[in-house]
Every structure is written in structure tokens, then in C-alpha cells.
Amino acid sequence: MTKSFDVAVIGAGPGGYVAAIRCAQLGLNTVCIDEWKNEQGVASLGGTCLNVGCIPSKALLESSENYARAAHKFIDHGIHLEGLSMDVSVMIARKNKIVKAFTGGIAMLFKKNKVTSLHGRGTLLKQENGLWKIQVKNNSEVEEIQAEYIIIATGSTPRQLPFIEVDNHRILDNSGALALTEVPKRLGVIGAGVIGLEMGSVWRRLGSEVTVLEAQPNFLMAADEHIAKEAQKIFTRELGLIIQTGVKIKSIQVEEQQIVVDYADAKADPQKLEVDKLIVAIGRVPNTVGLATDEIGLKINERGYIEVDEHCCTSLSKVYAVGDVVRGPMLAHKASEEGVAVAEMIASTKQGHANESAKVNLDIIPWVIYTSPEIAWVGKTEQELKSAGIAYRAGQFPFMANGRARALGETSGFVKVLADADTDRILGIHMIGPYVSEMIAEAVVAMEFAASSEDIARIIHAHPSLSEVLHEAALAVDKRALHI
Ligand code: FAD
Ligand code: NAI
């Protein structure tokens, strides 16, 4: 007999597995179908984020940052180390252990919440008598199940350059960049986006000569331009990344001894980069291959994303889509929040009660880049406000003038608060500095509660703490910062 469910979730990344757990918590009989296999060919839940994304990258960033501190910063504390060395295999094994614990943890959470977990590729076949038929294919084993509601959370895969194939041995995407067994002497990175900067940082800290080639004319164009300028300065001068913007890649040759990238620089002059390994990190594309039969007419836009409205409803009845496969930033926390919102909407529809809150506010999503110093922001950038013609006031405060930052020996960077010139409502908060990945939470809460810069200026912040930099930046909006 065909197994039947209230909800079938396709994909067990942070969008899918969270949606499945929330559906089950709300009393819905839920199945989650996922096809991911790890390097050993074993099914592994958690999608990109847990297997080859957020978690492993942060593990390597932490290890390499510890090494860099020991090599360059401990001396300031009077700590002398001799014969410092890095065992890359131990670092990678630690990362693998963390990944295994978390992916295994999802299997346990599924069990605890009574989510049925099926391994294989899910394909949406058709809707019959109000039930969707889904094929689940695991090698030669094919099973058909049915469910009333569908949540698609199939995520994304790395965008490829047309003229070179990733082999994850010498030409690497994120998976290969997270699994190098030794520090490459010369590392090239195509794309100065989030992955390029995080992965470039890891291997640079461990001693690689890292050159980053970026197509855009300016560095980190998604960020506030002052933050981007500061970041470029620090990454170049302090970390030693070689960053070239405005380049056009012409060709890549994989030779026996090296990889040669031919490109035109910002002045259109021909250049050559010779490296031992090359990371290609030029963005990601939504994953919809083989997801649904053509006949059912799932609408996909010209950029490959599944079309959804603000409630994540697709063009098909009772079919929702969340996470990287739909519009909005490709971030794990955005995927998860959409998963929760959709689960709550399905439950309320099925159980016959209204749910007004099941919607994700795409305007207030924090971004964090886990470089050193870290970069974090929420809301509008200064350039966005200018181009929208919105009058604003800005307040900025440097970490250099903060006691805790001095004690940490991490004084680079600043916090900037942007507030509406008339109402003082916060429109954006931008940070570059130590642990701003944690500090950004206060900014997100403030913005969700429609706070003014004066609200933050009047709230008591612990002393000495890094959060005082946000406090002072809020005071600076009204030109009354105290410690500068
Ligand atoms: P995914 O995590 O991609 O999961 C989709 C799952 O669906 C996969 O397991 C896939 O195998 C499966 N699947 C696809 N098609 C089918 C099918 N037809 N049948 C069955 N299964 C299918 N984001 C952050 O917020 N913070 C970070 O620090 C961060 N770091 C990152 C670092 C790297 C190197 C990378 C690559 C990404 C990072 N991201 C980070 C982005 C984050 O990983 C994604 O935004 C997030 O994983 C998206 O979640 P998702 O559930 O939409 O999709
Ligand atoms: P990205 O979109 O962040 O950056 C890609 C960069 O490559 C851009 O700057 C783009 O201009 C450049 N580029 C594109 N084509 C190019 C070409 N032909 N030559 C040279 N440069 C080119 O994408 P990335 O770094 O691949 O990461 C994908 C997504 O994963 C991110 O956008 C983000 O959503 C997510 N992510 C999030 C992280 C976090 O939250 N800390 C960490 C890593 C990834």
C-alpha cells in the first residue's frame, strides 16, 4: 500500500529539516526526503549548510584563526611559542567530527519528533484526488509515496564557470575547499564573495599565498561601501590577501605542475595567475533539476528560482518552496524561518485556524561574513538609502576606542547606525570588527521592534563589552558619542 502523509518535505537542509520538525511538532504526519550522500557514500542529513557549508567552514575558520593568533598575536600578551606548526589533517578531522555530530543530530531529532526520513531523490509526479504523488529514487530502488502538502527545500549548488570543470582535487568548489589535505603554496580564488573571502582567509592564515579575482568593479558590493572599503584595506594589509577587482576571466589551463588563469585586469590588460589550487566561488544556483515532471507546470523563473509569493506558495496548489531554491538571500537562517512559517501555515489551514504571523520579513535578515575581523549587517546600506532618496543620519564608532576590544587586542573596524532623518527609526546597522556575528543580534531585535537610534542610545549596555560600540554609534547619530 502507498505510504500516505500530511506533508512531504523534499530536501533536508536547514529549510527542509526545520520545516519537517515544525510540521511534526504541530501534529502533522511528515516525511522528509533527502538525497545527500557524504564522501563515504553514506546518507547525511543537513544539506549544504551542515555537510559542506556553514558548519564545516566555521570549524576551519576557528582552527585557522587560532593558528594565526598563536603565530602573530600571542606575543603581544607575552606568550612565546616555539616550533609552532599546523597539522592540517587534524584540523580536517576535527571539522569532519563536528559535521558528523550535527548531521547525526538531525537523524535523532527526526526520530524524536517522529518525522519519517527517506533517502533518495524526490520527484513530484502529479496531484490526484487532493494528494500529491512523489517518487523517491535511491539508486535502483524506486518507491512512490503520497502527501497532501509538499514543501520543496532542495537548496542550491555551486555556479560553474563555463570553461572549466570542478574536480575538487585541483579546481575546487566549496566542498573541495573545505577538504584540502595540505596548505597549497599558491591558491587562486575566483569570486570575492562570501565563500571566496571565508575560504581564502582559512588558507591564507595557514600560509598560502592567496589571490582573489573578482569580476565586479568594486570590492564586496553587497555590503555598505564604507564597510567594504575598510574590509578591503584590512584583508589586504593585515591578512595579506591579494585582491583584484574588475577582472574578466578568459581561460583556465590545468597543467601538470600548475593551474594558469588568463584574465584581463580592470584596465583590460592581459594578466596571468599561476596557482597550485583554484577555488571557484562565483555564486550558487537554485537546485530544481529533476524535481518535478514537466506536465505539472511548477513555475520557475528565468534565473532558475521556483516562483513563490510572500507566503512561499508556489504556482501549484498545496505546494510550498523555501530556502535557497526561492528568491531572497541564500542564508541558512532565512531558509529555516521560511520552513517554520510554511509549517505553521499548513498546520493552521489543516486545523482550521487563522495564522497571520506565518511570514518571513525579508527586509530584516542579518548577514554575517566570518572573516577576521567579522562583517555583519542588517537593513539598508548607505548607498541604498542614497539611491532611494531617503534622508538619513549616520552615527559611527570605532572598536579602537572600546575597552573590551583593546583587552582582546582586536581593535580594527567600527559600527555604523543609519537612522531616518525625520523619525529616527533605524534603517540599517553595519559592523566590521570582533565578534560582530554576535553583536548583530541586538541590531536585528531593534529593527524588528521598529526601534529608533535614540532607543539604543538610552539602553544600558554592559561595561566593558563590545556592545558598547553599538551604543556609542547610536549616540553618534545625535552627535553625542561619549568616548571619541
Ligand atoms: P540546502 O542546505 O542546499 O539543502 C538542500 C537539500 O536538498 C540537500 O541535502 C540536497 O541534497 C537535497 N535535495 C535537492 N534536490 C533533491 C531532490 N530532488 N530530492 C531529494 N533531495 C534533494 N549560510 C548562513 O546563513 N551562514 C553561513 O555561515 C553560511 N556559510 C556557508 C558556507 C558555504 C561554504 C556555503 C556553500 C554556504 C553557506 N551558507 C551559509 C549558505 C547555506 O548553506 C544555505 O543558505 C542553506 O544551506 C540553504 O538551505 P536549504 O535548506 O535551502 O538548502
Ligand atoms: P557570492 O554571491 O557571495 O559571491 C560571488 C562573487 O563572485 C561575487 O562577488 C561575483 O561578483 C563574483 N563573480 C561572479 N562571476 C565571476 C567571474 N566570472 N569572475 C570573477 N568573479 C565572479 O557567492 P559565493 O561566495 O559563491 O557564495 C554563495 C552564497 O552562499 C552566498 O551568496 C551566501 O548566500 C552563501 N554563503 C553565506 C555565508 C555566510 O553567511 N557567512 C558563507 C558562505 C556562503
Automatic annotation (TrEMBL):
FAD binds at K58, G122, T154, G155, S156, D324, M330, L331, A332, H333. Binds 1 FAD per subunit. One of its GO terms (biological process) is 2-oxoglutarate metabolic process. It is found in: Cytoplasm. Its cofactor is FAD. It catalyses: N(6)-[(R)-dihydrolipoyl]-L-lysyl-[protein] + NAD(+) = N(6)-[(R)-lipoyl]-L-lysyl-[protein] + NADH + H(+). Gene3D superfamilies: 3.30.390.30, FAD/NAD(P)-binding domain. NAD(+) binds at G191, A192, G193, V194, I195, G196, L197, E198, E214, G283. One of its GO terms (molecular function) is dihydrolipoyl dehydrogenase (NADH) activity. The active site is at H463. It holds the Pfam family Pyr_redox_2. Its EC number is 1.8.1.4. Keywords: Cytoplasm, Disulfide bond, FAD, Flavoprotein, NAD, Nucleotide-binding, Oxidoreductase, Redox-active center. Residues 365-474 form the Pyridine nucleotide-disulphide oxidoreductase dimerisation domain. Disulfide bonds join C49-C54. Residues 5-339 form the FAD/NAD(P)-binding domain. The active site is a redox-active disulfide bond. Belongs to the class-I pyridine nucleotide-disulfide oxidoreductase family. PANTHER family: DIHYDROLIPOYL DEHYDROGENASE, DISULFIDE OXIDOREDUCTASE. This is Dihydrolipoyl dehydrogenase.
